[in-house]
Specification:
By secondary structure, the chain is mainly alpha-helical. It is built from 14 helices and no strands. The chain folds into two domains: 7-242, no CATH class; 258-308. Helix 2 runs parallel beside helix 6 (76-105) and helix 4 (48-59) crosses helix 11.
Amino acid sequence: MSVSRHPIALRIEALVGRRAALLATVMCLPLVDGIFPALIVAGALDTVAGIVQVGLLIFGGSATVAVILADFDGSAREGAKTVALVAVPLLALAAIEAAFAPAIAGALDMIVFHRFAALVVIAVAASTASARIAEYVPRPAIVIVLGLVASVDPSNANLAATAEPALVVRAMAAALVGVGFAFLLAVTSPTLRRVVDLDRFRFGSAVALGLLGVGLLPGAQEIGFISDLAPLVVLALSALFAFDPDGDLGRWTRIPDERSRVRDTVIGDGGESELSVDAEQSANAASTDDAASTDRRAGIREEESTSERPPWL
């Protein structure tokens, strides 16, 4: 239920559901905080590879994967319906922002703005890789506003909305790639929950997103510093390394120790000697100490893992 108990919030939650609201927040966040418009202006959608990269890394990144696999506890059909519900506003907002992108680009010094666009993508990648880094990295909207202020060129400003149909189509194609990726995750989520390591995929997608940001730097493509397909290759390798079907095996396996074997050899034919009693008492005491130390180690590991993981995990 909505924490605010506001009637409008409750009505929206009853209409779309908690899972749809959470997925919409994650997938539409790049449209709201300015990352997607910055990428459009920076020319990230000029190639087919760029469209696929933006769709997979910006709209269908590790946050989308974590939300669908961790919070979608229903059937595959319910998950697909939720993704379809989120797709409508996502596509509409992507088209609207792409329509105004040429007017924004005309008032900017693109060489300067490319640097800020690359910086904001790299900052998001660093925040995705570590929750501690996210505490020190400024919000993407702040970096984008600073980039707009630093790169504004009023002499070329044109406030009229000169929409380019080709750019709008490319923006909607990038959004469709993200929606298609989320739809595939929702359909296969019952299986993926058992075989995907979210932490590995999160780190790998952060590296791929960082490569996307580096590729936006002026001259990065010309000097051969990074390939157009490098982020896609890294993302594919991340998905491969995140595949962990045996991750839960052995977690509940109990290996017999020396104490049990000593006790079996000491106990005779139905009788129990003093040595067996002493061995059993010492074994119980040792097992109690081991259990306490194991609990302490498990608590430390849990503290470390939760401190490193982002809120959605």
